Amino acid sequence: MPHTLILASASPRRLVLLAQIGITPTAICPADIDETPHKDEPPRALARRLAAAKARHVARPGCFTLGADTVVAVGTRVLGKAETAAEAEAFLNRLSGRRHHVYTAITLVCPDGSASHRVVDSAVIIARLTQSDVAAYIATDEWRGKSGGYAIQGYAAGFIRYLSGSYSAVVGLPLFETAQLLRGRGYVPGPEAAPAVAHHPPEAAAAV
User: Fold this and answer.
1) What is the CATH topology of the domain spanning 5-205?
2) Cα–Cα distance between 179 and 106 in angstroms, integer?
3) 169-197 per-position pLDDT tens digit
């Protein structure tokens, strides 16, 4: 019997990625949580905590709920989601010519309330960028709302000199680990259908 799957994310990229492995969520319930890092919190731990918090925030009894979070870091310094062109430019200049890590965490809350977690660490090196490169990328507007100020699946693909780990995790969802987790916890997908978007779910799964 097919199960209900709630995706605790507003990211269209994650929806597309899930579709690649034949998964269509029953409902999309973005989780409105505080994503501020704790003092001295390592990037990997931050990604895991936020993925778990998102999933728990919208989980409902009897349903599977998938939460995910992506954190870009240079060393222990987290580069958040770029909200302004100046911020995106600063992020790109910091990433230019350097190795950085992309930590993508997933949490699956099961119908019985138990949860499983995975964190995927991918190493990425962006080529040394000129100011013209940075200006051209800023003009694409792809950086807006992206962790680290870039989207690997877009124009920035031309800047990626090296990647070790999971490409799909850098985009936003590690597909191998997600598929393994769903199968391992007994999730049975239903027939393909357009997911229901729950902008105002019940109080038990409050989200924006």
Assistant:
1) Maf protein (3.90.950)
2) 11
3) 999 999 999 999 999 999 988 765 445 44
Q: From the centroid of its chain, how far is CA 100?
A: 16
Question: Which residue in 34, 69, 112, 141 is the catalytic one?
Answer: 69
The answer to whether 177 touches 120, Cβ cutoff 8 Å, is yes
What is the Cβ-side half-sphere exposure of residue 114, based on CA atoms within 13 angstroms? 5
Two structure tokens written together for 55 = 């999933």
Q: Among this protein's residues, is 69 annotated catalytic?
A: yes
Query: CB 50: neighbour CB atoms within 10 A?
Result: 23
The answer to pTM > 0.70 is yes
Other beta carbons within 10 angstroms of residue 18's beta carbon come to 23
Going from N- to C-terminal start, the domains of the chain cover 5-205
